[in-house]
Amino acid sequence: MHNIASIEIEKDIIKANKELAQENQKIFNENNVYAIDLVGAVGSGKTSLMETLIDKMDENIGVIAGDIISKFDAKRIENKNVPVVGLNTGKECHLDAHLVEHALPDINLNDISLLFIENVGNLICPTDFILGSHIRIVIISVTEGDDTAEKHPMIFRDDADFAIVNKVDLADAVGADADKMVEDIQKINPKIPVVKCSLKTGEGVDTIIETINKFKG
Question: How far apart are the first and last CA of the chain?
């Protein structure tokens, strides 16, 4: 029987990513830019949330749009006349600090005060990879099922600072309990604020903006 050495590759990758993330945040701080990592599954409403906040927030906003093919979401942001950089991840199911680092020269940080980094549509892969943002917002929707938080506890437990339950106007139509989703998140991580939201009706949007501003200080 051969003895096979166990190489802790995963730990080294995560450590290296953390170091790069710290460098990214240093760049944000030097340029007085507040960075938000926005995580959610496909169809949860990440891009729609950014579009709404661009319209309603009194900030100079920039966006890094990450996706397998980023041009579709990036085009929606371009239509809002704000600076946007598309990051294509190819087969990768998450952004990492290295990819974000390479996007920064393509966006003029001197012209913005708030940067949204839209992660790839996934609630699993981004968990271990911080980007250097000041906060991470996790958005889920009732259309994903009201057991979504229960099925993905790590994304809320480890790095989330703020959670949003979106599309609550559709809860009855899809047979989902939005209050249960809020309760599930609070059980997983009692420390983070959770807001119920409907980007269609506007419910919760003002509270989201207020919460982001509290984080900014």
Answer: 60
Q: Flag whether pLDDT at 121 surpasses 60.
A: yes
Which residues make beta-bridge pairs with 165? 140, 196
If DSSP codes are grouped into helix, strand and coil, which group holds residue 194? strand
d(CA 203, CA 217) in angstroms, rounded, equals 23
Q: pTM here?
A: 0.90
Q: How far is CA 209 from the centre of its chain?
A: 15
3-state SS of 138-173?
Answer: EEEEHHHCCCHHHHCHHHHHCCCCEEEEECHHHHHH
DSSP string spanning 94-147?
S--HHHHHHHGGGS-GGG-SEEEEE--S-SSGGGG---S-SEEEEEEEGGG-TT
Q: What is the pLDDT of residues 145-199, one digit of tens each?
A: 999 999 999 999 978 999 999 999 999 999 999 999 999 999 999 999 999 999 9
